């Protein structure tokens, strides 16, 4: 599904990603952990095509296709979805209207007609029920005045609506209360299939109890310094990152 | 006896006015320049009664003594008022024989707005075969209105057919000497609309200048008079979203609304005059005076979407004379490239318990300048007057400007006035967020701008709102990159 080879990225001459290698197969869930400022969000945004970052060496391949020349919207049309760590507000644009536009733009790129209104409504009803989102919420302006947790839940609602091939969830768990975490995680699990892949960025082992990863990677100082299975997350919870930092320094 | 242009000019310069002289003019356009003879000539061309001629002359004399205002936040080369022709008969000859001759850029825009081919021809000034449909629509339209006693016709026709109404109300809200452009308009206006809603009648349809029979296109000096008798209601639409090109650079319209006791007037405008090219060349100067008078319990709402013109100077206002009357102003003003707009409103609270609401949304892109200028005035006798103003500006890029000039004059201690202002920029992060969801930058901007303007768009009649949304998109096309 996704293959990242020796990826370097910098902003304003400051190198943030320093040679990332990562392979994610269809049907897999990968977790990325790592200390603050290590480059997790940067990696997510570079995959999504954020032009703020300059990609130096390396490639990102999605189903074998190099993404380098593709704009963020083209990547989205190919099935890349990013659940943002800090979702932005768009005043006056309702969640529903935003989703309708997003879905129809992607369909247009695939040469399809607009989704019929009845189908759209059905889908909205289904997905909002799955994530226990109040219908009134969907007519509010996108993220405007949403609580931290509401924003995150709304990101996953969008993921459910867009049915991406590759979803990257950047700290979706932070801000969610205990019940919300369970609801959102269950939602994500329902979206798992053998044809898609998910990358979860998190600081906490708790999320990984719900969304069980196939692999766990530790990103430190722009590099993946350790990879393992879900047990690695437990070890990190217990020991912190210092031992890895020392290891990396050697 | 035929005159050449040259002879005529000389004649006008030297000769005193003689009755009957004008019937001899064969040309349909008056010579350039403005003096009393020209004013008289316009009046005669329109076969107006003497009181109207006299009215125009008074306006002209006042105008001669006035100075062009300087206070607006716009700069432009002042028009040479002696180098303008003030009258030309409605052009009966089509400008083009087929659509192929029309500027392709204009046609492209028509297409984007979803305007039918017949309509495109009409708007661009291409010869059309008689379209039975539109004729019959117009006829049914007129019949429905007549049954209710509603008068909707050109102002020239009204002067002929309903002189008592015109005489009673013309210039009562915008006096002849109100300001430089209003005085000019009063002296030389050549056409416009007249609308009268009888007592207690609710006008059953949106009245649109677009559908008005007998006159296609908009004049350079338009004059509009809308009278809503006691307890009546009318929603009036002015302009259309299709881009209007005009070789006349200067436009100075006057609109007067009169809402008698318990009446309501909703006046919506979409203005899309040619703004000049993207280097700032050409384009229409639009200096408009719009004002409404509210008697007891009456309500006037102005809603406008302004996307056109090189220079716009426009302050739709409400005089809240009657107790409990309500004034509203909802505006979206978009400026792009080198456009300059200085718009806003005046709410004059004279009666008790009067209420006004101002929602202004300014969107600036390119190197344009967009100013909001609003006055809220509460008279000493206006007990419990209330105003709420909200002015939001949205900037695209960092070469454009947004300015807000709110003026508040409260002479009564019970007045409650609230003013909120925000300025925001379309953020890179907002664009990226949309991009990430598969929405390209152009579409993302349209989405953000529509969201920003929503409170005002919602005030427009349905069909108009959809068109206005598309228009906003088109106006901002190519403004990022
Ligand atoms: N636009 C930018 N300009 C300058 N520095 C940046 C920019 N974006 C990111 N950085 C820097 O890059 C480093 C990595 O940031 P990133 O957001 O990827 O970290 P993270 O691993 O997601 O951290 P957290 O766990 O706190 O979310 C940080 O030092 C950050 O300050
Ligand atoms: Mg981060």
UniProtKB/TrEMBL annotation, chain A:
Keywords linked to the UniProt accession: ATP-binding, Nucleotide-binding
Matching SMART domains: AAA
Residues covered by the ABC transporter domain: 2-246
Matches recorded under Pfam families: ABC_tran
Coiled-coil region list: none
InterPro entries in UniProt: AAA+_ATPase, ABC_transporter-like_ATP-bd, FeS-cluster_ATPase_SufC, P-loop_NTPase
Keyword Signal in annotation: no
Organism domain of life: Bacteria
Family under the similarity heading: Belongs to the ABC transporter superfamily. Ycf16 family.
Name listed for the protein in its UniProt record: Fe-S cluster assembly ATPase SufC
Species this protein is from: Flagellimonas profundi
TrEMBL record, chain B:
Signal peptide: none
One Pfam family of this chain: SufBD_N
Start and end residues of each SUF system FeS cluster assembly SufBD N-terminal domain: 46-203
Ranges where the SUF system FeS cluster assembly SufBD core domain occurs: 211-452
Family that this chain belongs to: Belongs to the iron-sulfur cluster assembly SufBD family.
NCBIfam families: PRK11814.1, sufB
PANTHER family: FES CLUSTER ASSEMBLY PROTEIN SUF, UPF0051 PROTEIN ABCI8, CHLOROPLASTIC-RELATED
Name listed for the protein in its UniProt record: Fe-S cluster assembly protein SufB
Organism taxonomic ancestry: Bacteria, Pseudomonadati, Bacteroidota, Flavobacteriia, Flavobacteriales
Recorded name of the encoding gene: sufB
């Amino acid at each position: 599904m996704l293959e990242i080879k020796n990826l370097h990225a910098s902003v304003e001459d400051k190198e943030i990603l320093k040679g990332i290698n990562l392979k994610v197969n269809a049907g897999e869930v990968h977790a990325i952990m790592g200390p603050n400022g290590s480059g997790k969000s940067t990696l997510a945004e570079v995959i999504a095509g954020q032009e703020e970052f300059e990609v130096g060496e390396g490639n990102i391949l999605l189903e074998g296709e190099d993404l380098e020349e593709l704009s963020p919207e083209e990547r989205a049309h190919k099935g890349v979805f990013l659940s943002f760590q800090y979702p932005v507000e768009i005043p006056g644009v309702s969640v529903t209207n935003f989703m309708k536009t997003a879905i129809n733009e992607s369909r247009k790129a695939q040469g399809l007609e607009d989704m019929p209104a009845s189908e759209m409504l059905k889908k909205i009803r289904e997905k909002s029920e799955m994530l226990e989102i109040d219908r009134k919420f969907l007519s509010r302006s996108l993220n405007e005045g949403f609580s931290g947790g509401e924003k995150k839940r709304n990101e996953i609602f969008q993921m459910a609506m867009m049915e991406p091939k590759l979803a990257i969830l950047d700290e979706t768990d932070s801000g969610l209360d205990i019940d919300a975490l369970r609801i959102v995680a269950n939602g994500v699990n329902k979206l798992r299939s053998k044809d898609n892949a998910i990358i979860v960025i998190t600081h906490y082992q708790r999320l990984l109890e719900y969304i069980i990863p196939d692999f766990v990677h530790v990103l430190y100082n722009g590099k993946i310094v350790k990879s393992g299975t879900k047990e690695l997350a437990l070890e990190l919870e217990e020991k912190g990152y210092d031992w890895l930092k020392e290891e990396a320094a050697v | 006896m035929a005159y050449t242009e040259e002879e005529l000019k000389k004649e006008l310069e030297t000769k005193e006015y003689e009755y009957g002289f004008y019937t001899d003019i064969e040309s349909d356009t008056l010579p350039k320049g403005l003096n009393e003879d020209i004013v008289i000539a316009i009046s005669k061309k329109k076969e107006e009664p003497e009181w109207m001629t006299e009215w125009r002359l008074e306006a002209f004399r006042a105008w001669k003594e006035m100075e062009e205002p300087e206070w607006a936040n716009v700069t432009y080369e002042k028009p040479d008022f002696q180098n303008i022709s003030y009258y030309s008969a409605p052009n009966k000859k089509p400008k083009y024989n087929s659509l192929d001759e029309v500027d392709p850029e204009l046609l492209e825009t028509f297409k984007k707005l979803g305007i039918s081919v017949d309509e495109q021809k009409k708007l661009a000034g291409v010869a059309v075969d008689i379209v039975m449909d539109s004729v019959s629509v117009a006829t049914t339209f007129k019949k429905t209105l007549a049954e209710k006693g509603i008068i909707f016709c050109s102002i020239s026709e009204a002067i002929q057919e309903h002189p008592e109404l015109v005489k009673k109300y013309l210039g009562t809200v915008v006096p002849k000497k109100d300001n430089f452009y209003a005085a000019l308009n009063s002296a030389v206006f050549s056409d416009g609309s007249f609308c009268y809603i009888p007592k207690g009648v609710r006008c059953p349809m949106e009245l649109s200048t677009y559908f008005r029979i007998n006159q296609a296109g908009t004049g350079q000096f338009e004059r509009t008079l809308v009278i809503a008798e006691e307890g009546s209601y009318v929603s009036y639409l002015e302009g259309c979203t299709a881009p209007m090109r005009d070789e006349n650079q200067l436009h100075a319209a006057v609109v007067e609304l009169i809402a008698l006791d318990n009446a309501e007037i909703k006046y919506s405008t979409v203005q899309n005059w040619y703004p000049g090219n993207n280097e700032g060349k050409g384009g229409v100067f639009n200096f408009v005076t719009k004002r409404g008078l509210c008697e007891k319990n009456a309500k006037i709402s102005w809603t406008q979407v302004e996307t056109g013109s090189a220079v716009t100077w426009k302050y739709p206002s409400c005089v809240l004379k009657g107790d409990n009357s309500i004034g509203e102003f909802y505006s979206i003003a978009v400026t792009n490239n080198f456009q300059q707009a200085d718009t806003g409103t005046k709410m004059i609270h004279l009666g008790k318990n009067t209420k006004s609401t101002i929602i202004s949304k300014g969107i600036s892109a390119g190197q344009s300048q967009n100013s909001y200028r609003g006055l809220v005035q509460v008279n000493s006798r206006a007990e419990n007057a209330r105003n709420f103003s909200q002015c939001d500006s949205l900037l695209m890029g960092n070469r454009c400007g947004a300015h807000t000039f709110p003026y508040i004059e409260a002479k009564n201690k019970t007045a409650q006035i609230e003013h909120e202002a925000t300025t925001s920029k379309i953020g890179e992060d907002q664009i990226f967020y949309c991009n990430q969801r598969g929405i390209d930058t152009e579409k993302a901007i349209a989405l953000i701008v529509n969201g920003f303007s929503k409170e005002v768009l919602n005030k427009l009649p349905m069909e108009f709102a959809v068109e206005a949304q598309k228009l906003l998109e088109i106006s901002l096309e190519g403004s990022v990159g």
